Amino acid sequence: MSLRCALLAWALFTLLRHGAAQKASDCCGPIVPRREWRGLASNCDRKLSLPKSYVVVSHTAGSPCDTPDSCLKQVQNVQNYHKGTLGWCDVAYNFLIGEDGLVYEGRGWDTQGAHAGGGWNSKSIGISFMGNYMDRAPPQRALRAAQSLLACGVARGALRTNYEVKGHRDVQDTLSPGDRLYEIIQTWPHYRY
């Protein structure tokens, strides 16, 4: 068995084991729902009016994860930090992207995030890549997962067809989403400074 086939078989097995993949009809690609990563209950009550015109891309600036098991732990760590240490109502982001190539549901499509300041939370969907991307780029599978999520948002009516992608640093004084990831998102067709 080739390395590629072995990796694909491992990924499929892991997805089935965790029950992480939702039906394609429910969403446009595999999204690990909160119940699967054992997220704490959200106390957030601010709903978003959809569709949104903006997506803000950030990085967590923490440890990366490259397997479903390590990403489950990492998204729990992010939520515990946001809820337990910072006192927020939930994990800040609408979705998180793992280096395993999976999308993890944060606040989801319908609930306002806490991913950017200056009024951007109410008018955007926040997507954060788990890891620090100052000096290295996320793997292609993570970038493809993000692109699939954006297409899903348009298909579901959560994002306008002419939505704009912004780097976190475009809307707030921060180094996020890291230099390497920022260079990449600037090449995406919906990126606007």
From TrEMBL:
It comes from the Eukaryota. The keyword Secreted applies. InterPro entries: Amidase/PGRP_sf (IPR036505), Amidase_domain (IPR002502), Peptidoglycan_recognition (IPR017331), PGRP (IPR015510), PGRP_domain_met/bac (IPR006619). It holds the Pfam family Amidase_2. Residues 29-172 form the Peptidoglycan recognition protein family domain. Keywords: Antibiotic, Antimicrobial, Disulfide bond, Immunity, Innate immunity, Secreted, Signal. Residues 41-178 form the N-acetylmuramoyl-L-alanine amidase domain. Residues 1-21 form the signal peptide. Its main location: secreted. It is found in: Secreted. The keyword Chloroplast does not apply. Innate immunity protein that plays several important functions in antimicrobial and antitumor defense systems. Belongs to the N-acetylmuramoyl-L-alanine amidase 2 family. This is Peptidoglycan-recognition protein. It comes from Equus przewalskii. The gene is LOC103545824.
